Amino acid sequence: MLSCLVITLGLLACTSQAQLHSSASRAGVSFAPQDGGVSVPPKKVHNHRMYGMCPPQFQRVGTDCYSLVQQPSNWLEAHFFCKDKNANLAEPTKKADRKLRSYLQRQDSQTGAHDPIWIGATYDHHNNYWQWSVSGRNLTYDAFNQMDPTNPLDKNCGVYDPNLKYHWSARSCPDKLRFICQHKMPKVSEANRYKIYDRWNVTYPNALANEVVLEVVGGRGKDGRYQRLVVAEGSAEQMTIPGRRRAGTRRHPAKHPNDVNYRPKNHTHKRPGVSSTTPSTPAFYRSGIPSTAATQPRRPTTHPRLTQFDRKLQRQRERELRRQLRRKERLERRHKMLEKRLLSKAAEEKHHEQLQQHQQQSEPDALRQRNMEEQQRQEREHHEQQLQVEKQRRKQKQEQLREQEKQQRQQEQEHELEKQQRQQEQERELEKQQRQQEQEGEQERLKRKQVEDERQRVIDDEARQMREERLRKQREREAEERKVREEQLRKQKAEQDEIDRRNAEQRLANEKRLREEHEKRLLEAKSEQERILQEAHEAKIREEKAVEEALAEKERQRQEQIRRAQKEEEERQELEQFEKERLFQQREIQRLREEEARREQLTRQRQAEIEQREAEERRLAEEEDRVRKELVEAEKAHKRQQEYEIELAERERQQRQEAEKAAEAAKTPQSESLQQALKSANDDVAQQLEEKRRKYAERIAALSPEDQEKFIEMRKKRKQMREKQLMAREQTKLKRIQEAIRLHSIQ
Fold first, then answer.
1. How does residue 75 score in pLDDT terms, banded at 50, 70 and 90?
2. Could you tell me which residues come within 8 angstroms of residue 692 by beta carbon, excluding any fewer than 6 positions away?
């Protein structure tokens, strides 16, 4: 009884373990932590069992996981849908392509769908080859069905076409079709399963994953490690476990975003780490579904790496924090400035009160101070009046000088404008002559080309006629040869018929002679035995003759068949020759027609170019006339504006003179004395200037003639330099005005 109980418990344990490690069609694994997010790493168990993991809604096909999505989408939407699932559009290899086609056939036979299915192949029309979208590599293997080479492939993507037995085909990328996503199937040991749970829990929170149990083929090697080949449960398919990096080597293995064994190292960042943009989910259980994670202690859940969106949010938070700090500093500075202003205002009020108290205490001193300030103010006013008068006189002189300079500048501008107009007219004439010469040269070139084309056309027509004449003569010669051959064959046939007739007559005569001889021998036979022997001998002779005749008839028939086959072969060769000649003539005629059409098209293009050039010339002439008129109108408007400005300046000057005269008439005797003082001061200044000029003339006269000439040359050069600078400034201003006018006309 006890032994039966032990056996029953052993069977139950084996059954529960088999249920926990069921395949993708029977079991699922929840990614949520089962003890509030705190788990302990499992102990290493060295066994011959591993696990292939497929995400939710993905099925194992071969060595990868695939998900057929029935949602109609264009190629780009399908691509991003798969990227959101940490997968990519299917990129099948040769072996995987056969298995995937079988899988799609089974799925469509169950669902009844027959629409094409997007895969990850896109056509690069710049380099004219197909490539995978994610890796960017060229296709080393493709299962494309035979496609129409005349159909352009730009903006086309690859599909599985059910109408072509699920071979590959090309469709326009904006079409709305089904698609299939591919996800790498990590093959991990039981000790590394928690890594898969931690990673996929972000993308598929609280979802169930598909597992398949992998049995390691063979035992340990010489180095004590297990072999890398595994076999899936319920199939004979072998898979390879990804290799591990050995210590002391610099070779980096291939990285894949879905392979847990190739997870890169976590680099230290200066900014604080962010767990994830996905909110953490509470523990999730389903009591009815056995979970393989429930029997294993788990490690603490590690924070996933920063995604691009996490980094973007981190940068936004940092910018917002810096903005708030700057706002806070601004408010503090404003508060300090306000406090400082209030303190200074209070100090000013206090100082004002102290001054008022001091004035109340010393009233006589204030009166004396007020008298002194009044005297100083009067002196300042008198001095300011003198300065104002001097300033007005200087201002008048400066205005006169400015008016003179303005008039001189206007004259120079008018002269420069006239000079530029003449230059522009000359340039336009030269351009017009050049264009006319170019047009004449182009017309002459077109005429020469047209004459050459006409001459070439005549030569081609003559060559075509000669070719047709040669072909006609060849046909006539072949027809005569054919008639001669037919006549020879007819004569040979008649001769053969005559020979056959003679042979038949000779054979009949021989038969008759032999029959007569036989009858004669029969009559002459002495006994019955001799007659029988003679008859047997005659029968044998007749059989031999019959055999000979049959052989001769067979030979004749064989010769006849050979002659008939030779005749048919000759007729077939003649027909092939005729067909080749006919095709050659058709190609030649087609070529001549294409050449004729091409010449006509070139003639039409040249005619259109000539018309276009003439229209362009007319448009340019009209544009020149319009620009010339606009320039004349602008010059007239500029002159009117200048005259108006001169008139306004003259009126203002007269008004100022009248106001000055009135002010002089209304001056007090004190101002008259001031004027006298100013006059005497001006006389002194004039005398000083005259004395300076006299001394300057004496110094120049004291120089040698060569120095005087050098001095005069230097003065001339300075004057010319000033004039050139002035002209350059005026030209620059004029160019700006012309550019503005041109832009305005273009607008």
1. very high
2. none
